[in-house]
Amino acid sequence: MRVGDGGRHTLHTTATEFLQNNQPDWTDSMHQVREAISKICRKYPDEYWLDKDDKHEFPLDLHRDLAKDGWLGICMPQEYGGSELGISEAAVMMQTISESGSGMSGASSVHMNIFGLEPVVKFGTAEQKERILVPLIQGKEKSCFGVTEPNAGLDTLRLQSSAKKQGDKYVLNGSKIWTSTAQIAEKILILVRTTPLDQVSKPTQGLSLFYTDLDRSVVQVTEIPKLGRAAVDSNVIFFENWEVPGAELIGEEGNGFKMIMYGMNAERILIGAEALGLGFAALRRAAIYAQERTVFNRPIGKNQGIQHPLAESWMKLEAARLMLYLAARLYDQGHSTGEYANTAKYLAAEAAFEACERAVLTHGGMGYAKEYHVERYLREAMLPRLAPVSREMILNYIGERVLGLAKSY
Ligand SMILES: Cc1cc2nc3c(=O)[nH]c(=O)nc-3n(C[C@H](O)[C@H](O)[C@H](O)COP(=O)(O)OP(=O)(O)OC[C@H]3O[C@@H](n4cnc5c(N)ncnc54)[C@H](O)[C@@H]3O)c2cc1C
């Protein structure tokens, strides 16, 4: 407890004590993941995350604990130390980390491990996989992901960073924005253009992917002050004449876009799962507070104006959850189009945001105080609505691909 409660009965509960594990649609393996991850997260209560958020400190100890028990390789091949489980299990892992009270901060600290190296798993050579995946799964190295650029935004195909081949190396020039964890990562997976846009027959061609050292002697990394998820940094990075060995090119030169697209539906499912965790954590706190807080001689949760919005939020979160685990199951079964992954990410992010807003309102003035944690949740709940793909681009996708409507841009 951070401050005296002056006679008020306040609950500073450890969120994980209330994690439920009776989802009727989950497999045994998913329940086992839930159980094991919540056991680890129990060590990191809400107060820990508030402190990390205040101090802008990366949660290295959670990262270490998850690595120690092998969780950083949940979807990676067994021959490199992974568990080779599906996106369904990975989604349970990410939902549970977030739901433990860590929100997007805890989830983002390991997010890159779960889906981000998919291009290496799929398209890397055996030597690259051994060199890249093993230390990452063991938690000995951390990696960030550099795709977004200041001048291209969501229009990835117009990214301007370039790589020119010189002998057996490439020379990279350009910038990236929002690169998360670049303050602490030793490595980066980066997408740059190797053939100028006006020299390719299709804009999807000519982009290449490198996995290399984030060499701070040539790469300038500057943190962006931001609304929430302060424990995990996001950055602008600049690089000039950055020499990268040819052996660090992943897959075929010019094929990078196709390779990053490969992991995209998985990432949407995972971000959706993280959003769900945040929404359920907020709802739990709201329900506890509504039961405990007495005003006008009655617990505030007895008022339908408080109770009904929370009940509705549970239904919306649960509906999004069912969609999300359906999308995960279909992905694991080889379904490769994005309608369910996109829909799940959209619905989960919206339901989570609403649940977090309602949790703040349920707390009244105390919802605005850091000690009740819901203000941190609300700040973080904006993130899954914006990234890695915005709500508008998901609506564009459904409009075009599912409804067959004309492309609007
Ligand atoms: C905290 C955080 C962490 C991130 N981490 C990473 C990371 O690690 N690596 C990385 O590469 N990126 C990262 N990102 C970047 C993120 O993926 C982008 O912010 C996101 O893809 C949106 O791009 P943008 O910000 O450039 O928006 P813009 O492309 O500038 O778009 C701005 C707005 O215009 C709308 N818009 C644009 N075009 C259309 C259209 N045709 N139709 C309808 N609406 C449109 C968008 O939906 C959006 O609302 C992160 C972002 C944040 C906020």
UniProtKB/TrEMBL annotation:
Positions of the Acyl-CoA dehydrogenase/oxidase N-terminal domain: 28-140
Cofactor: FAD
Top-level taxon in the UniProt lineage: Eukaryota
SUPFAM superfamilies for this protein: Acyl-CoA dehydrogenase C-terminal domain-like, Acyl-CoA dehydrogenase NM domain-like
Molecular function in Gene Ontology: acyl-CoA dehydrogenase activity; flavin adenine dinucleotide binding
Sequence ranges assigned to domain Acyl-CoA dehydrogenase/oxidase C-terminal in this UniProt record: 254-403
Keywords for this protein: FAD, Flavoprotein, Oxidoreductase
Residues in Acyl-CoA oxidase/dehydrogenase middle domain copies: 144-241
Keyword Oxidoreductase in annotation: yes
InterPro entries to which the protein is assigned, alphabetical: Acyl-CoA_Oxase/DH_mid-dom, Acyl-CoA_Oxase/DH_mid-dom_sf, AcylCo_DH-like_C, AcylCo_DH/oxidase_C, AcylCoA_DH/ox_N, AcylCoA_DH/ox_N_sf, AcylCoA_DH/oxidase_NM_dom_sf
Family of the protein in this entry: Belongs to the acyl-CoA dehydrogenase family.
Protein name according to UniProt: Acyl-CoA dehydrogenase
Protein source organism: Cladophialophora psammophila CBS 110553
